[in-house]
Amino acid sequence: MFDELSPTDVYHALTENENSLLLDCRTRAEWVYVGIPDIRLTKAQLALIEWTDITGQQNLNFVNQCREQASTDTAIFVICRSGARSAAACMSLVQNGFENVCNVSEGFEGDLDNQNHRSRVNGWKYHKLPWHQR
């Protein structure tokens, strides 16, 4: 199984742990148009590896691409838009031998509010954690 932490707890963990990786598993379009977490002031590395592409097709090389970025004992924190895709990605990593995997609950943009807008209820951006346009 894998752990789950809030975006603020994840950011704190990234600042403390040198052997950590923030894995953004959203699509390339999301990275470009919505932005990406900015963890330059932490001790962690950032990896951008799609779980699925923009058409919804699963990235069959996901685990191998993760192995190129991290070892099985690296603390890996996986983020997507709202936490659902990242949970699936976490499960895949655990099933393939990664030992220290954590889902970023709430994701980068969080849940929809009552007007169907994101980043107003929860998520990385809502908590005013560092991010930038790519």
What does this structure look like?
With about 130 residues, the chain is of the alpha/beta class. It has one domain (about 5-130): Rhodanese-like domain (Oxidized Rhodanese, domain 1). Helices cover about 25% and strands about 20% of the residues. The protein has 4 helices and 7 strands. The protein has helices spanning about 5-15, 30-35, 60-70, 85-95, and strands at about 5, 20-25, 35, 45-50, 75-80, 100-105, 130. Helix 4 (about 85-95) links the parallel strand 5 (about 75-80) and strand 6 (about 100-105). It is globular. The protein starts with a strand and ends with a strand. The mean pLDDT is about 95.
Terminal CA distance reads: 32 Å
| N-to-C series of helices and strands | EHEHEEHEHEE
- List the uncertain runs: none
* CATH H-level superfamily title: Rhodanese-like domain
Largest sheet features: 5 strands, parallel
Quickly give the CATH architecture. Answer: 3-Layer(aba) Sandwich
Give the beta-strand count. 7
CATH class: Alpha Beta
DSSP helix count?
Answer: 4
What is the 3D shape? globular
Gyration radius, rounded: 14 Å
